[in-house]
Here is the input.
Amino acid sequence: MILEFLQTLSEMQIVGELTVLSLLIGGVIMAGGVIIAKIAKLLFHKYYAPSLPKDTAQNISKLIYFGILIISFLGFTSSQGIDLSGIMVAGGIFAVVIGFATQSVVSNLISGLFLIVEKPAKHGDTIELPDMGISGTLLDIGTFSSKVRRFDGTVTRIPNEKFFTSNIRSLTLSTVRRADVTVGISYESDIDHAILVMKNEILETMPFVLQVPEPEFRTEELGDSSVNIHVYVWHPRDDWSNAQPILLNTLKRALDKSGIEIPFPQRVIWTGKD
Amino acid sequence: MKIMSDNSELTFSNFGIYDLVDQLELILPNTLIKFHRISENAFSYYRKNSEGNVVEKIIPVKSQDVKIELAPIRPLNYPARRTNHILLQFDKEIYLSENSAASIFVNCPIEIGIFLIHNSKHDSLDWITCDPLNSRFGLYGSPDTGTLCKYAKVTMATDYDDSNPYIEGVIQIVVENTLSFGHTISKVVFPITDNTLYYQNSKTIIDGLKITMKKRAAVNIADVQTTSLDTDWIASPTWEDKTTSAHMEMGLE
Here is the structure.
């Protein structure tokens, strides 16, 4: 009965020699290809990906998935008796047209390949793209675009071409990072004493600040209202949030405790009579 | 709750294994630890330090035979685990003339681990430092290629008994100068995950180090290797995963 059913399907012609049966076989080949591709991707992720860097694992995974899909598609076309050589010739004619139309797409694709080869940053790195005003964690370098999760939790998609041609500042390549702030003290205050109390407070209350190299203090400017001291501290690269945002609080607390004035901006006005 | 404002009045709990029956109180410098049975199969854990920070946990247990081990651990966890290396800056420099060797004892900071023992298995329950003000980071090398280390300015000890209990352990360092000229050494950097800690009562000793100052190609280096200690003191359980690295090479400055 099944054979009769298949016989009937093979006799039902759709266009030319294309029958319902051949279309069904093609569908089975494509569906089988998709299933095999997914299983291969799943097995790769389970057994091999954990031992590879994340971005390399992602690229190999995509290669496996799309490779199997392409092979399935070729199997599908040959099962339908489609001669691809004709398409190739036609493709040549349309190549120029398609080339112009998909210029940015191809550019993004090529840039993506270069990004994968050059690896200016890898999955999970904290990066900053100063030209675009974007900073955050690099989630993925994809075929056409890359994704960055910004510090506010949103994800920005950046076309690979723009990403590749941008200045990329990596915040995680170095072992340590430096935080810095400027603090002003009054002209009446002893600069050396102020530096000493600030240094002691930093070393006592900021456990993530490195002792070597030790905090550095530079008298930066004799300002309009205050003597401005620039303070530099080093911290482990992943502990920015334990250094930069609390550094100014720490310095103010130290100066307050020692009675050292942080002056308001002030103007001395002389009138004509004076 | 009384927290130690004057440590000199208190008798501190020794390192070792304690039976956990109904309740247990462990007193350490600037730290109080309490276990209390809250049900047949559960204990509460309470820890308070001198800064007023409190940690509380509920510990479900299966068996009735539960023990607690208080033991020294490597000083890598406070304020956060970031590295396996430690940089010991000697308070006094050591000068070695050509082709000479010396053996010194140095006080190395420690932390204290609290382990739950049930069915002969050690589980890490908590860790503390009795000297948080001196538990800091330092960098050996340049910011881009250097090694992040726990940093400690250390004093010399006379022997293995000359340590500051609960805060420091003693490590023996053998320094050998094979160079053709005298050299001064002021610090040592090494992965302390290779070194086992041993305890007895309140004191701690640590696997030793051998530093060889030698010439490699045109560069003078200090080759730092761990040497196992042969002792009858009790080996401390390992808090963190132990890593194995052959040795550390420092540049001679």
User: Anything to note?
Assistant: The longest strand of chain B covers residues 203-216. Residues 1-6 of chain B have pLDDT under 50 and may be disordered. Chain B has one domain: 7-251. Residues 7-251 of chain B form one domain.
